[in-house]
């Protein structure tokens, strides 16, 4: 058992919720890409309810949008951890940041593919 682990039960769940909200606030305040994705989701998610698609298709359209937010949060976390370790240029740091960026590119591509297949298919 890790000495860094704290509470258990309901207290742990409440603490985790607070940490999650703090992470969302930090991402929104400090990451322009996250704010842009939030705006994209504010547009696309309601738009998913406008189109005449099945519930499953609508859920897939929304899930793809939310996945991009998740990937951006993880990408930002990797970048913050790398920057915390060192701001020096290092090939491994560059690889880690580039891979996070690539993951976000794939997530955004997924939005486009899912929406196009559903709406044009």
UniProtKB/TrEMBL annotation:
It is found in: Cell inner membrane. It is a multi-pass membrane protein. InterPro entries: DAGK (IPR000829), DAGK_prok (IPR033718), DAGK_sf (IPR036945). The active site is at 72 (proton acceptor). ATP binds at residues 12, 19, 31, 79, 97-98. CDD domains: DAGK_IM (cd14264). GO terms for cellular component: plasma membrane. Catalyzes the ATP-dependent phosphorylation of sn-l,2-diacylglycerol (DAG) to phosphatidic acid. Involved in the recycling of diacylglycerol produced as a by-product during membrane-derived oligosaccharide (MDO) biosynthesis. This is Diacylglycerol kinase. Its main location: membrane. Its cofactor is Mg(2+). The keyword Ligase does not apply. It comes from Zestomonas carbonaria. Mn(2+), Zn(2+), Cd(2+) and Co(2+) support activity to lesser extents. The chain crosses the membrane at residues 33-53, 60-82, 102-120. One of its GO terms (biological process) is phosphatidic acid biosynthetic process. Keywords: ATP-binding, Cell inner membrane, Cell membrane, Kinase, Lipid biosynthesis, Lipid metabolism, Magnesium, Membrane, Metal-binding, Nucleotide-binding, Phospholipid biosynthesis, Phospholipid metabolism, Transferase, Transmembrane, Transmembrane helix.
């Amino acid at each position: 058992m890790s000495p860094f682990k704290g509470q258990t039960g309901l207290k742990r769940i409440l603490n985790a919720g607070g940490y999650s909200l703090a992470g969302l606030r930090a991402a929104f305040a400090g990451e322009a890409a996250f704010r842009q994705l939030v705006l994209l989701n504010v547009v696309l998610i309601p738009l998913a309810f406008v189109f005449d698609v099945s519930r499953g298709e609508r859920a897939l359209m929304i899930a793809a949008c939310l996945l991009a937010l998740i990937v951006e949060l993880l990408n930002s976390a990797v970048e913050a951890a790398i920057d915390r370790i060192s701001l020096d240029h290092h090939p491994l740091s560059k690889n880690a940041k580039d891979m996070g960026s690539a993951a976000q590119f794939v997530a955004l591509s997924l939005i486009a593919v899912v929406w196009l297949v559903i709406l044009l298919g």
